[in-house]
Amino acid sequence: QKEVEQNSGPLSVPEGAIASLNCTYSDRGSQSFFWYRQYSGKSPELIMFIYSNGDKEDGRFTAQLNKASQYVSLLIRDSQPSDSATYLCAVTYEKLVFGTGTRLLVSP
Amino acid sequence: DAGITQSPRHKVTETGTPVTLRCHQTENHRYMYWYRQDPGHGLRLIHYSYGVKDTDKGEVSDGYSVSRSKTEDFLLTLESATSSQTSVYFCATQDSGVGYTFGSGTRLTVV
Fold this sequence. Notes:
The complex is a heterodimer of chains A (108) and B (111).
Chain A: E1 4-5, E2 11-14, E3 19-25, E4 33-38, E5 45-50, E6 54-58, E7 61-66, E8 71-76, E9 85-93, E10 95-98, E11 102-107
Parallel strand pairs in A: 2-11
Antiparallel strand pairs in A: 1-3, 3-8, 4-5, 4-9, 6-7, 7-8, 9-10, 9-11
Chain B: E1 4-7, E2 10-13, E3 19-25, E4 31-38, E5 42-51, E6 54-57, E7 64-70, E8 73-78, E9 87-94, E10 101-102, E11 106-110
Parallel strand pairs in B: 2-11
Antiparallel strand pairs in B: 1-3, 3-8, 4-5, 4-9, 5-6, 7-8, 9-10, 9-11
């Protein structure tokens, strides 16, 4: 069973802080890693993807991948109330396998 | 997403009735997927398609069937709906090498 694990949260951070979301996966053969954001009652929206070890930055978002530790993280700098959502980690095992998501709450 | 349309958006049906959900895409993506999303379980793959008339089962395929007669349409059928199939169903498409794009979802309630 291919697994993707996330802490369900909620993770509460004040506005302007850095939010750190974490994900671990079970299969060392995984090649591609994705972060989706899902607002309540809406569909998941792709915000970041990473294929290689290290960091990838896009605006306020940074994805970090450590294949040796089987660990993926998403950092959100200068968190805003509009970032409050559930963040889904997804890993490719031929098809995408999703974690159950971490709920992020950013308070004004 | 403008390129992926799911219908209906909401449906209430009775136990034992067949139900068909439709996913229509205008992106000409080869790959299409059906997921269900339930609290505590996240998104789970039901069936997927690599092209016209080329489909396969995902991890939770029991009680579901699919058909893809055209590139743009991927149908999910609940052969005899049960209360355990009450869920939010998402269709997704994929352009090769990139993450999936999701439709707006169908909220299905089986009573």
